[in-house]
Write a structure and sequence with these properties.
DNA-binding; 18% helix
Length: 169
Amino acid sequence: MGRIVEVEAYFGEADPASHSFPGKTARNAILFGPPGHAYVYFIYGMHFCLNVSCEPDGRAGGVLFRALEPVCGVEAMAKARGLPVSPTGARALANLTSGPGRLCQAFGVTRVRDNGADFTASESELQIQDDGFPARDVLVTPRIGISKDADRPARFLLAGNPFVSGPRL
DNA sequence: AATACGATTGTCT
DNA sequence: GACAATCGTATTC
């Protein structure tokens, strides 16, 4: 479906920019649970964003998926968004999956459907597979769209990849 | 009960 | 570059 090309790390209760900073609540409970589960939140009244919990049970932490490079299923995504059935070129494709809100819309990720889902379950729709693509040339920058701790380098992206959202350096 | 704001995106200037 | 759309949470009264 898509190859992960851009993510951001959020470091739990010690990270002022993280949703888990205020402590465990009903909203962020998944971040405090076992690793490998989907934390889906609703933002700005219209967008969903997808994270995977990353720390042992009882400790908060997660990684936000910010952009994917479409690999297959492109036509179905385009049709669902009313775009030309056969989009060509990196620009048109990037409009589908570049950005945390966009990739959730493209894959139909919602809070009701996916919050708490287990990435590692064999029947999971969120399974992540190793396709052998070498994740080299990884750049690190500050995270996007936050006001607190705005300078911390915690955004990771593949150098030169056209499907990354926002600044490539 | 009322209010302020956000890990975004699209549109307009 | 500025700003509107839109609503679930958290905070405060």
